[in-house]
Design brief:
311 residues; Spore Coat Polysaccharide Biosynthesis Protein SpsA, Chain A; 42% helix; 2 domains
C-alpha cells in the first residue's frame, strides 16, 4: 500500500464530495486507500459517502472528536507506507499525489512533507510556517509584524518555487512517513482544534526527522470547511490550542505568557473595532461583536485538561 489518505469530516457534505472526486481522479497507478472519519455529522455526509464512494473506508465516530482525535481513529487503521492528512475543503490537482510519494521514496530522511497549496483564486497559500514563538505573538499583538514586514512566521515573502526546510506543515494537506509516525506517535488528542499539527511537526523534528516544503503542484484549499462553522469560537479555540502548545513545550510559565499575549491581542481588537463602530466605519460593528464575544469566552480557553504526549 503506497498511500493512505485520511480525511476528517464534520458537516461538510458538498465539500467532501468534491474533495473525494478529486482524490480518486488523482491517484493514478498508486496503490492507495481513502479513509473518511466522520465526526457525527448530521448533514447527510455519511449517506453520501456510502452511496457515491463505496470504496472509501468510512469510520463513523459517535461524537465530534475534533481534528486530532478524529484523525487518530483513522491513522490507527492506515496501512500505507505514507499517510496524507487532507481537509474536506480541498481539491487535489494533477499528479500531486503520485509525485509526492515518489519524492518521499527518494528522501528517507524526511518525516513530513507539504506540497504547494493554492487559495481559491489561484494565489499561493502560506501552508507552512515557523513555530509560533512568544516573540512573534507579541509583535503581532503590537502590530509590528506588518509595519516591519517581519514575515518569517508565515513566510509570506517567499514565492514557494523552491524546496525548503520548515518548522510546520499545515494539516490541511500533509504527507507523513508512516514508519516515522510509528516512532513519534500519533497526534496529541489533548488538542481539539489548532496547534495539533504544530505540536506534531515539533515532535518529529525533535526525533530527528526533517520537515520539508516541496513545490509539487498542487492542492487548492478553500479554507471555509468545518472551521468556518465555529464563528467566534474559532478564535477562542485557536487561543486555547496555541496556549496548550506553549504550556506543553515550554512549561506553565510559557503557557501563561502565551495566554496573556493572546488575551491582550483579542482585547485590543475588540477595542479597536468598537472605536471604528463609533466612527461609522463599514463592517466595524460585526467585527466588534466578534472580538467582544471572543474576549467574553477567553476564560474557557485556558487548557484545563492535562498536557501530554500523544498515545
Amino acid at each position: 500500500m503506497d498511500l493512505s489518505i485520511v480525511i476528517v469530516n464534520w458537516n461538510t457534505r458538498a465539500l467532501l464530495r468534491d474533495c473525494l472526486r478529486s482524490v480518486f481522479d488523482g491517484l493514478g497507478p498508486l496503490v492507495a486507500e481513502v479513509l473518511v472519519a466522520d465526526n457525527a455529522s448530521d448533514d447527510g455526509s455519511v449517506a453520501m459517502v456510502r452511496r457515491d464512494f463505496p470504496q472509501v473506508r468510512l469510520i463513523e465516530n459517535a461524537q465530534n472528536l475534533g481534528f486530532a482525535a478524529g484523525n487518530n481513529v483513522a491513522l490507527r487503521q492506515a496501512r500505507g507506507r505514507y499517510v496524507m492528512l487532507l481537509n474536506t475543503d480541498t481539491l487535489v490537482h494533477g499528479s500531486v499525489l503520485q509525485e509526492a510519494v515518489a519524492w518521499l521514496d527518494a528522501r528517507p530522511d524526511v518525516g513530513i512533507m507539504g506540497p504547494r497549496v493554492l487559495n481559491a483564486d489561484g494565489t499561493v497559500q502560506p501552508s507552512c510556517s515557523a513555530f509560533p514563538s512568544l516573540r512573534h505573538l507579541a509583535m503581532q499583538t503590537l502590530g509590528l509584524t506588518r509595519i516591519a514586514r517581519w514575515d518569517s512566521y508565515r513566510m509570506t515573502g517567499w514565492d514557494r518555487a523552491s524546496e525548503r526546510r520548515v518548522d510546520v506543515i499545515s494539516g490541511a494537506a500533509m504527507f507523513v512517513r508512516r514508519s516515522a509516525m510509528q516512532e513519534v506517535g500519533l497526534l496529541d488528542e489533548a488538542f481539539f482544534f489548532y496547534g495539533e499539527e504544530t505540536d506534531w511537526c515539533h515532535r518529529f523534528a525533535r526525533a530527528g526527522w526533517q520537515i520539508v516544503f516541496v513545490p509539487i503542484p498542487e492542492i487548492t484549499h478553500f479554507g471555509n470547511g468545518s472551521a468556518g462553522k465555529l464563528n467566534h469560537r474559532r478564535d477562542v479555540l485557536m487561543t486555547q490550542g496555541t496556549t496548550r502548545l506553549h504550556r506543553k513545550h515550554g512549561g506553565r510559565v510559557a503557557g501563561l505568557a502565551c495566554f496573556a499575549i493572546l488575551a491582550a491581542h483579542n482585547a485590543s481588537r475588540a477595542f479597536f473595532w468598537s472605536a471604528m463602530t463609533l466612527l461609522g466605519r463599514s463592517g466595524a460593528n460585526a467585527r466588534a461583536r466578534h472580538f467582544r464575544a471572543v474576549v467574553a469566552d477567553l476564560p474557557s480557553a485556558w487548557p484545563a485538561t492535562p498536557v501530554g504526549a500523544a498515545q
